[in-house]
């Protein structure tokens, strides 16, 4: 942070020269892999990045950087990086490639595109381009790039997360927000003010509930974990809802060690206390809410003794937490991924939102503030929809079957139904997967072996990435190399502020920026639109201004500013001031204009309009017989600061801090199965198994194991059958595809069952070989589950 000792050291220029270095002040979407974009100073010499520092002038990150940015040099100049386009030169899976030029790559794409369109027309009576499906990963910088390639360049409507079952990352929480109040809320840690904690309007929350989230490791969804530590220093008390004793849980006043997948019941229990003890905000409920009486009836079904039993919690802790949260003025909720990764994702999100609203904490300083993208100008996954006409939209795979998808609350097609199309060829067999920033069989997809099998039915695959991934080796015909963070010009915001990314380092071999790739490809496939741009900067200016309102600057202007904060001149209680609705009236962007505790839209769609507990798909309660065979609760994917999903496994420094897939198991389980720290164990259920190394985690819920996700081994043989060992430690050998709640949102990545036993010489084997050569683990249960 800037203080009196260093204030002359850190400049506000966007570029200067110092001790033989060119210093560029910019933001990066890490090195790479992150939801944020912290302020950095890049020190380059002769176009090479030599070191990187945090920029204390950037109020968002205040000079702090974490491991992944600090280690950027090692990533950028890693010899494993892709250097030029590669065309397959053997069978899929053989890992044999031929170096080609970009011209040759584009020629190949043009020829293949024509074949795809013919097949779709002739064999499926379709239009043609819909045979291409783009798969995207989570929100890194590359977010709109895959969408633009798909829709603006190729003209296809089929875009999905890389088989993220039931869109179970942030989509449920955001959609619940949209249903309830028409916007999204975030915990107000003063991040909307450039002067941060000094802002006179901002109030420090008295209490924050950290719910299914570990922000110190994840910094997810545009929220920086260290803000929470700042708040704690300013006096904020914590309630932590997590089955694991995280660092934050260890500092909490109340730690609710909830049974995975039962968060909705817990929130309903807390609502029960708050309503019955009359601790809610009468003014907000009477003037700004719709359907409170129905909620009163619903929470009566969730008395705290019943909830304690469902959630495996102490009843008094639930009551204490509810009272503490309701009494604090203001109080905020910082929620996370665990809410989405259960079949009751939408239900839990509804109930938690209601807690925020009825306690009067919505859109108040230090509570949960309604937020929009700066200037509305963050291009996202929905990019390029204007290039798709209605006939083509109607050809989307699976969308008809899900009201939320059909109504356009997400620009994605349902990944589970895409998988079914790849298995059955109905409504048509996708002809090409355009994989833009995702590595699905290593990480994103549930039931990875099932995806592996189905994907082999798809004729063509193109992968756009930094590295050769297991997904590329298994399926790709063409691999296109892209530039990393400090080698690219771009812009983005996750909420606020709008930031630029400036290329400070030179081009790495023949890598193109994703931005450049979209433009170059666009000039080939859709010259009518793309020929208006002479260079990437002109294209970026268009992208910034296109759906942004009041943005009159070019990319180069913004670049010199580095970032711009946000355009709302009011931050709080916007619903009172008529600042949310297009018609300028007070209220929320909902049909009733009120915060909808009872959702009329859900009613129309045939969903429960109020929150309700849905017992996890596999659990001691729903499937007691299965629980006898698989006696532990399996959760997966808690974040590690040095690793972003399946990335960074090539980097020696990261492997030093996290050498292999190291899972948490409780001391009780360790004793039961006779393992000690550092042993290897099998996690197994009826879908499959994987092996991971044991860390005995004190304070973990006694019946719980927490597997790590995203593991593959770039140092191992890439060709099949080994495929970089991608199925050996793969947490998603045990997760599901096709299992979700009634809304099609939320899959049980974090709450199923497993058994756990020691890896021995006798039982050791290679799951990668079993999947790539043996057809999988057998015994898979492919019944679709869309129920309660
Ligand atoms: N370093 C790093 N940062 C990342 C990522 C990464 O891979 N690495 N991934 C990014 C992405 S895409 C996302 S979505 C975010 C996610 O980041 P977070 O929202 O922080 O989610 P997780 O770390 O998966 O899990 C958070 C906590 O949920 C707990 N938990 C598990 N099951 C349950 C449950 O059923 N209920 C409750 N209440 N808690 C449960 C876990 O014990 C864990 O402590 O992180 C982002 N940031
Ligand atoms: N079991 C289990 N599985 C999980 C989770 C869990 O908690 N448990 N978490 C899930 C969640 S929340 C998510 S969001 C998904 C995330 O899944 P993904 O977002 O698909 O993450 P990765 O598998 O790491 O794939 C990203 C790929 O994109 C490349 N890449 C990175 N940046 C760029 C870029 O700017 N341009 C291009 N072209 N490529 C880039 C990387 O090198 C990498 O190969 O994983 C999910 N998987
Ligand atoms: S959160 Fe960490 S990895 Fe992400 S941009 Fe900031 S410093 Fe880099
Ligand atoms: Mo995610």
Automatic annotation (TrEMBL):
Pfam families: Molybdop_Fe4S4, Molybdopterin, Molydop_binding. It comes from Raoultibacter massiliensis. The lineage of its organism: Bacteria, Bacillati, Actinomycetota, Coriobacteriia, Eggerthellales. Transmembrane segments: none annotated. Belongs to the prokaryotic molybdopterin-containing oxidoreductase family. This is Molybdopterin-dependent oxidoreductase. Keywords: Iron, Iron-sulfur, Metal-binding. Residues 24-80 form the 4Fe-4S Mo/W bis-MGD-type domain. Gene3D superfamilies: 2.40.40.20, 3.40.50.740, ADC-like domains (2.20.25.90), Dimethylsulfoxide Reductase, domain 2 (3.40.228.10).
